[in-house]
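User: Structure please.
Assistant: Input sequence and predicted structure:
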Amino acid sequence: MAKQKILILVGPTGVGKTDLSLGLAEKFQAEIISMDSMQIYRHMDIGTAKPTLAERCRVPHHLVDYVEPDEIYHVSRFVHDARQAIEEISSRGLLPILVGGTGLYMRGLLEGVFELPVIPAEVREKVRQDLQRLGNAAMFQELSVCDPASAARIHQNDSQRLARGVEIFRATGIPWSQHLQRQDKETHGYEAVKIGLQRERRQLYERINSRVDIMIDQGLLAEVENLLAMGFGPELAPMQSIGYRHMVQYIVGAWPWQEAVSLLARDSRRYAKRQFTWFGRDQDIEWFHPAQRQKIVHHLERKGF
């Protein structure tokens, strides 16, 4: 059977993915599946730079405003939901376009998601007690002996991942790193064409700074205050994301306003840099400037779209 053709559009925050994706969707009779780990949440519109209602009316979007902020949403669930959306879109003779900057979501969709064995509760509790009693250094030493490959990539202060590595070995007798090496590489029948968007670094950072100003003007602070009033506490993972945690720090009096805004812009720029690094390792991505729309269209036409 022929593989299902999908288009994947990636790039760092603020580069211009939304605007281009709308034009490509109209050109190639497509619908958009969000590949963004934050736009999945309801009530979080401004800080996630979510497509507007007008843009979503212009082109149907999937996996936007999909779950509540206190729901657990992870890569395994995204893969399941994205596959369903791809099947639904393609069944109507349309092209699925996945758009976003969450590299883990893309990798999970194309390569499969590795499920580790269930760790018995007593093993997990004993590791927790040992970590509390002996400290990070002892836990790191144990991991270095039983799983040196994992120890090489985990910082000694990262208590959560140290404990995870030790509990996996104690429960299974197999190092975490070896479990990961067994991960199946599955394409699930997709013929994926990947387009990456990039800009000159200074121009991108200027766009990110401007975007932060726009978010503030649009009412990011009020959005976060509303989320807190609705009972979505600052301990939730979405509330710890860029933009939301900065407003929370201002609200609780930890940071003055100008510091909160300045750190929001700085952390957004750093996030964009990390995204560049992640996607830059993918040799299958063809890179373009967002202004090269016609060149992108010609490229996709040559690919059979």
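The chain has two domains: 4-113+185-302, 121-181.
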